[in-house]
Amino acid sequence: MPETIIKVDLTQSPYENDMVHNRWHPDIPMVAWVKPGEDFVIETYDWTGGFIKNNDSAEDVRDIDLSIVHFLSGPIGVEGAEPGDLLVVDLLDVGAKPESLWGFNGFFSKKNGGGFLTDHFPQAQKSIWDIEGMFTRSRHVPGVSFAGLIHPGLIGCLPDHKLLETWNRREVDFIATNPTRVPPLANPPFAATAHMGRLAGEAKATAAATGARTVPPREHGGNCDIKDLSRGSKIYFPVYVPGAGLSMGDLHFSQGDGEITFCGAIEMAGWLHLKVDIIKDGVAKYGIRNPIFKPSPITPNYRDYLIFEGISVDEWGGQHYLDVHVAYRQACLNAINYLTKFGYTPAQAYAILGTAPVQGHISGVVDIPNACATLWLPTEIFDFDINPGNAGPQKMITGDIDVPLAPDL
Amino acid sequence: MPETIIKVDLTQSPYENDMVHNRWHPDIPMVAWVKPGEDFVIETYDWTGGFIKNNDSAEDVRDIDLSIVHFLSGPIGVEGAEPGDLLVVDLLDVGAKPESLWGFNGFFSKKNGGGFLTDHFPQAQKSIWDIEGMFTRSRHVPGVSFAGLIHPGLIGCLPDHKLLETWNRREVDFIATNPTRVPPLANPPFAATAHMGRLAGEAKATAAATGARTVPPREHGGNCDIKDLSRGSKIYFPVYVPGAGLSMGDLHFSQGDGEITFCGAIEMAGWLHLKVDIIKDGVAKYGIRNPIFKPSPITPNYRDYLIFEGISVDEWGGQHYLDVHVAYRQACLNAINYLTKFGYTPAQAYAILGTAPVQGHISGVVDIPNACATLWLPTEIFDFDINPGNAGPQKMITGDIDVPLAPDL
Amino acid sequence: MPETIIKVDLTQSPYENDMVHNRWHPDIPMVAWVKPGEDFVIETYDWTGGFIKNNDSAEDVRDIDLSIVHFLSGPIGVEGAEPGDLLVVDLLDVGAKPESLWGFNGFFSKKNGGGFLTDHFPQAQKSIWDIEGMFTRSRHVPGVSFAGLIHPGLIGCLPDHKLLETWNRREVDFIATNPTRVPPLANPPFAATAHMGRLAGEAKATAAATGARTVPPREHGGNCDIKDLSRGSKIYFPVYVPGAGLSMGDLHFSQGDGEITFCGAIEMAGWLHLKVDIIKDGVAKYGIRNPIFKPSPITPNYRDYLIFEGISVDEWGGQHYLDVHVAYRQACLNAINYLTKFGYTPAQAYAILGTAPVQGHISGVVDIPNACATLWLPTEIFDFDINPGNAGPQKMITGDIDVPLAPDL
Amino acid sequence: MPETIIKVDLTQSPYENDMVHNRWHPDIPMVAWVKPGEDFVIETYDWTGGFIKNNDSAEDVRDIDLSIVHFLSGPIGVEGAEPGDLLVVDLLDVGAKPESLWGFNGFFSKKNGGGFLTDHFPQAQKSIWDIEGMFTRSRHVPGVSFAGLIHPGLIGCLPDHKLLETWNRREVDFIATNPTRVPPLANPPFAATAHMGRLAGEAKATAAATGARTVPPREHGGNCDIKDLSRGSKIYFPVYVPGAGLSMGDLHFSQGDGEITFCGAIEMAGWLHLKVDIIKDGVAKYGIRNPIFKPSPITPNYRDYLIFEGISVDEWGGQHYLDVHVAYRQACLNAINYLTKFGYTPAQAYAILGTAPVQGHISGVVDIPNACATLWLPTEIFDFDINPGNAGPQKMITGDIDVPLAPDL
């Protein structure tokens, strides 16, 4: 039985667990060391550290202080790893904590983080998804269930000081271009809620002042939210500091491409079973700038899709130049509108696109002025037939249930 | 044997074939009528109407007048189709013309259209791909071969006058925001090279003056360049004019997501075997704004991928806000750099990404400020192993061959 | 365009085409020579040489003289191929003759060949399947259509004299154990209907007297009827005679595992696009006794199956020892019975199992005394839902159409 | 968290656990009751109840008393289930016991059970496979690892008295046709080692005298050893007694089609997470004789196979009539011989075929006199390339390790 080198107690605040941190900084001390070739287990909190509850109110989604996220387990030192190496991580398995077989999905209030479709869903909403073995189903979104494509939303190695400075300068400068925007353009360092792991005293205060927020994906990987980086996959991470310092968290039971609901996928507390190895000097040998990975041999095999197209003309008629973000938003809005014909509320449809294994493809990015993006919705996840036909759509969903909403105060 | 209702002679100029057109306009007369439930065959030119030749010079790619594209076969009238209906099109099969078993891929000069990576590849280059049954291989790009995911890059129904006006106003206004840009923001109507099918005389002149260019994908579908809209798939198109007026062309033997090389995928002349049907009033019943489709049950099954990540920090360090276009460009540049370690020139690597069935996924679009996109490169298409390992990359490609380049004059 | 090195004229008797033969014998002269690395096209008759017609009567299936089959195109000489080499054959593509876009399926009378379920279907029956692009549908079997997994039922190299003698002795001795059995245990050489290609005169008579019948699969491959040896696959054949002598025919548009209807799959005339190469001394190097092959990267992706189990207790209660043949027959009978609940006649259900891409798995062969076999029926090929449910099966097929039957005379 | 309604303690003899039984008999009392729609967890012993150990000796495989198997957990009563209903079982998940992350594979001595290739491997041998997350690897079989396709080898409902009598009469009569055969034709009831669950006293003795052995698959399912009946699949079982009486065990981490090594797949102790439901009168409605099932949406996606053919001519030249058992044996022997060219011992190669997700297809069963079977070996499970090529096979396996063998005493 592999050793569990990081444990988390879901009844305890993550701030009290010194094997957890919520900022990126090279000075955060390793909490455990492993050898290349070893396999081991790590437990993690959900990304909010337990703030979001399994209930029927979205008030917690509305009220959360987003400066506290993400609670990561680590950093783990790998013996012999040096800057310039590639750290090879096998995600041997990932799962939910047995005492916590559920996850949440939600949309933040536009005033508190927003999300991909925040102009259409400006208020906080939340759905709860029960995990039944390899499958999930929600009491707030009837008529749909699917197999989990379980993955860590966030995983990567500690940056060195130089990389950290690059990040901070880049993002702080960017915020300065529109500092009052709601939601903001980016999140600067914020010491008040920083959890710097085993750093203490002055060293902690110093590091907390410049520790990079965990929200965006960056050169080291980090919060990539790639649904296919799932259990069974193999990842090659650039190493920046001696020992690598691998940290991870933000586990998802399932997510659609884009994580368009932002809060988030089906978010859960859980564990990862990992094996690590090293390719010496791999960064230069292979010309690696961002992590690369190989997919799992075991993934859900849904193959009957209904595919929605979107182009970079926005929902108000505005023309954008080869903008895939706008094009994918149109494809998502098209899919939501389609699903409402079967009785779903827009919020339920949005929750499905955020949680189910939908694919988002960059289909065309050169045909000026319009990008084309496609959203692939697996039809097999529905309890009824959603294909178009001569009879027209049947209202299979009665509308007496919806995703709980918490109005802004 | 199904009837071939539109024939093309590749030795003849497409301007001499009155069953072909290269602009979108509701007044273009139907060239043939079919009944719902019927299946039939249509032949098409390659998108340039034969301008690009099977040789080892990129001068034709450099010199092409892009105002002549795309040469489409149609429009086909479907009996009983009315505005508001959905036209259901089964792509029963698609193939190359037997006398023309090759295709081309290229990058335009930045002065003449450019492309996704035009800042990195500013000059015209061209590769030729031989079609051997279900597979292709290029004398300009050694060490790689793959099965074709054959599809029409461009297919859709005629717009009505109102929709046409929306397009023209939207795009002309957009061009006006930066009229001297190279490459341009969009392409306005251009009568000089318009081919309006069977329209003649004054009617032709009038329509040519406002006929929409065929370059961008739009509400009706059009030049979507979706690689998965392949033979065997089923598409639901909005109908705008009586009879629908279905036209198509721009056949691709294979393409990567994004068609990042712009000129283009593996471009070929060929034929389509189609069946059409109608869902009455389907646009309103299903809330359709853009076409939707279902994938083919027969597609290449490559599943061992090497996946490259990109984030919306550009190659010069610039920060962009959740910009998937920038993120995908980084993923592409990362993959190109990786492939050069095995001996490919950057141009060869770029050509592989434009032609092979690579997937481009919108992985994360909410984690401010960085979008995350992934490029999935199937490893099985290479004659050698491209996976990372302790031994480092082997230079399997000797570098004595490259993709022909034609310098700007 | 690859050269067509063997042509067939479907309006001509195959006996008049000297590039065709219907027996295996080392003395049959090569009809064409190709070089390793070359690709070329071969045309073939359907296995009966045109005897079975596209009509609504099964009399031809009842009356056929089975000693005439199979009409093979070849043998093709490969320069440099010697006994002990492996001949590598790439099936670049396979298709139907454009002037003959249909195929047939049938069950022989028990008196004339029978078939897997001849005790249940003792009379001749026939269904016609129309080929519509990549798909097929039958006017005799409503409610079902599927993509073709096109393949040659029969392909292999000429035996040498020693191997031929082994075959003849083995099978003649076997017939002698029960010479009056109906259907027979095997088919001995039969000169009267032999077509020995370009052999003539005495040489022909001598060879015809001992030429092996083409019915069974043997060491060289031959009539394996493996549905997955489809277009796009790569096969490694043992070579027995100088030049290899590759012959093939018996094209199938689609077939279920087992080819249980015997007459046969969806049988058609067509063409193959091939490329050949040689692995010198490959038989000994790799210890090859029978051909081996790699599957195509392009195949139908049906994945939602209803799976029927069968065990080696026969339909009359008899116990058999680990007999997979009996077990698979039970699985087939179970599937047929199930399909009748939706309105199909047993003959229609049998035809579906013979033609659609059903899988037959050897599931357990060690749990004495019962083997377990499974039949995988893809649910997606039906126009309606065949899954079990609380509502019970709906009679979607009205029963006014059946597979034509020709009573024994 | 679902309730675990049957627990097993691996340190305790299964004979001491009254929620376990090793015979089929209608009188075995239910050990727990569940409601339709409920999900719950069941733990199981490995099929030998812990007799086979994680060590490097095959003596336990040689010495085991096979009359003790299989130790099943159950029977479970389902409220409302009546004879003639279909019991719908969702295998929500299946896994190994966390304290026992390993499994065994072996071949029995020909004197004690034998196996599919017992004439070639007449002595007891054993390999141990470590479970690392979703993957497995063996210290006795280097160079190969694969993802688990976890499944219960044995699952089914209690027979009623009439069905039990049919079984006993059928098999006892069969044994009588050759009572001294080694291995035997079948296994008769055997009271001495019977574990009848909660039956006690005279009732136990009576039932033990006629309780059917658990070895063969039968009408109710039972020991089908179908690798694809894996976690995530849905099964429809005929119900024979009030409450159904569902029992299961014999968990496999992975198995090849046929379970040709007999002892067995990768055998392990573990748990199942199940949900049950009922289709009233489903047996008659759907004409069900044996269980039917639908595959899991999550399974290993290996798709690059090397496929070996076998025909029904045995390894000594003997001719058999359409015998799939013989044909599959030849395909297996061909694959074993091929793998030895890369350095594997025959026993290691045999162990790979018994444990890895190889497919066994019934390819042709009508071409008299030869059946054709194919064995599909996934190439991706090997650490090196096993495809044929001009360079010939490389001896990647050095031969200093083998599968432990215990000679007959």
UniProtKB/TrEMBL annotation, chains A, B, C, D:
Give the InterPro entries listed for this entry: FmdA_AmdA, FormamaseFmdA
Query: What's the short name of a Pfam family annotated to this entry?
Result: FmdA_AmdA
Q: Which domain of life is it from?
A: Bacteria
Task: Specify the taxonomic lineage.
Answer: Bacteria, Pseudomonadati, Pseudomonadota, Alphaproteobacteria, Hyphomicrobiales
Q: Which Gene3D superfamilies match?
A: Acetamidase/Formamidase-like domains (2.60.120.580)
Its EC number(s):
3.5.1.49
Protein name according to UniProt: Formamidase
The molecular function terms in GO held by this entry are:
formamidase activity
Keywords noted in UniProt: Hydrolase
Major enzyme class: hydrolase
Xref: PANTHER family: FORMAMIDASE C869.04-RELATED
